[in-house]
Write a structure and sequence with these properties.
Layout (H helix, E strand, L loop, with lengths): L11 E4 L2 E4 L11 H17 L4 H14 L4 E2 L3 E3 L2 E7 L7 E6 L6 E6 H5 L6 E7 L5 E7 L6 E7 L4 E16 L5 E7 L5 E8 L8 E5 L6 E6 L5 E7 L4 E7 L8 E2 L9 E6 L2 E6 L7 E6 L5 E5 L5 E8 L4 E7 L2 E7 L4 E3 L8 E4 L9 E7 L6 E6 L5 E6 L11 E9 L5 E9 L9 E5 L14 H7 L3 E6 L9 H5 L7 H16 L8 E6 L1 H12 L6 E5 L5 H6 L10 H4 L5 H8 L15 E6 L8 H13 L6 E6 L10 H18 L4
Helix pairs in contact: 2-4, 2-12, 6-7
Amino acid sequence: MNAPLAPRKPHTRSIHGKTVDDPWFWLREKGDSEVIRHLEAENEYSASVMAPTRELQETIFTEIKDRTQETDLAVPAQHGDYWYATQTEEGKSYPIRIRMLGGPDGSRELVLDENVEAEGHDYFRVGNVSVSADHRYVAYSTDITGAESYTTRIRDIETQEDLPDVLEECRYGLAWSADGAHLFYTVADEALRPFQIWRHRIGAAQSDDVLVLQEDDDRYYLGLEKTRSGEYIVISADSAVTESTWVIPATDPTAAPREIIPRREGVQYNIDHRGDEFWVVSNDEGVDGRLLTVSANGGPSSEVVPHVSGRKLETPMCFSDHVLVWGREGGLPAIFQYDGASLHPIEFDEPIYEVAPDSNREFKATKVRYTYESFVTPRSVFDHDLETDERVLLKQTPVLGGYDPGQYVQERLWVTARDGTQVPVSFVRHVDAPVDGTAALLLYAYGAYEISYPVRFSIARLSLLDRGVAYAVAHVRGGGEMGKAWYDGGKLATKVNTFTDFIDAATSLADGGFCATDRIAARGGSAGGLTIGAALNFAPEAFAAVVAEVPFVDVVNTMLDADLPLTVVEWEEWGNPQVEREYGWIASYAPYENVTEVAHPPILVTAGLNDPRVAYWEPAKWVQRLRELSTSDAEVLLKTEMSAGHFARSGRYDLWRDEAFVLAFVLTRLGAA
């Protein structure tokens, strides 16, 4: 049984001598009332099919809620004379931003209550929050549709009143001048590409703002931040393979931006500032990066630490007396400390984990604050003394109900891909789950943009593990887990490695007894949804169920439409189908166009009507094609958020219910409910 088929409007595409009929092309017409009725009918159908799981969904939602300490306070972080923090309160969906004067135990002062700002909106998301150097103002950007076009306002923290200043159609990134009189922000073009940096004078109209820099090359996104020293405003222009950076003294905000290192095709670099130098990580002489310094007054660069193959250096972090570099080594995240001659990693003792910088706002600090977690260790905040190497746990996210990490087993596994490559897999199961080839498994993957998929703790995942279903992440090529070569081995002409790595991981886990061959569910989102969709076409028999969230599945049509957000930027990731050879790469795996008449497993697909990253019509079209050609009677469900975008619903309770819906689908389809 499937949802009623929508009416068809013919569309034919001809390119490179190939003609493709696309009967579902009309679903792109967002303004067509028939499209909206179709999506709503799909939602009703999905709800009816999942109706027998409502009790299970409610049970899982309650488990998530009961394990979560709803009223909680994050570790306060010093910024000048204030300590800033976020807190959550039971019954409220969004965080509350506060600060304390003089220390973390000082009296609390409200900075921004997101719950108040969210009132009356079905969707609400804060994209930027930046406090002025004098701590008088907070600039904050909000999105109420999910389309990621933000309105920026400026609030007087003491009076809790917004200034008349309103900046429309902003993107990510805000930076204050040193005197708090100017605010820099980003603006996107019609394709939602951040291509301009503007300077706003507090108290002036947006129409009086000054254009600081414009990037006319459609391959580049502009970014905006400040150095940790607070002395420079940093503008970056990033494509998939090339980066360049300009700086403006924060004390001289009207100065023209100055480029640090001239743009060179294929060279990427990141900077921070300390004293008279910019510290730079660059891949100019090795794909995994070396550490350099460049005089703040201009001049040639000087190598500090050379490139070492397999040790991925990514981002420098400068303190007044210390320099760190964030990166990866051995397939795991790493923090490298510079000792004046070389880099040394900070050691961690679990086989798999995620470590990331937390709030480090004090430039003169002698401690670095970071978050640490794993599949079994809840998110933990540490202060690490850079002079004594002492590590202090400041807070670990509480898990209510008597959570015992000893009840779960995590491992780093290695599986052999069909070309002999060793692919890392992060795996976790309940201690009582069998390893005899009978257990169920949920296998996740991403595999794009050199993003390393993190090994994070999840309260919701406990509802899966406690029912005997194991969980694993296949760190497939196309991600950044094993360095730059790992990324290059899963993009453009080699993109197919991403999908075959995922299939080979599923097969190897079953062969190793970690799960049953016929009890594997696949899950991925966005570009990870492409991984899942392509793997489903290549090996539909490998999966007992599939969850594809906002999946990028109509790759050819999207990459042919240069007016869509991301398209031109992403030609360096996927290829440009206007070039015949590159069209061949994409057409060989694009999930929508490669569906064939085979027996498909149960499939759950999600979409966001206002999604600017993966348009809702990609998953909507794919669902119809799957239904048309599947030879099984397994359901194909489409669940579209009608008031949201790429990141689904925005409130934490709504997100918990969404996750309960997905887990109920997985558990019932794997026979593990």
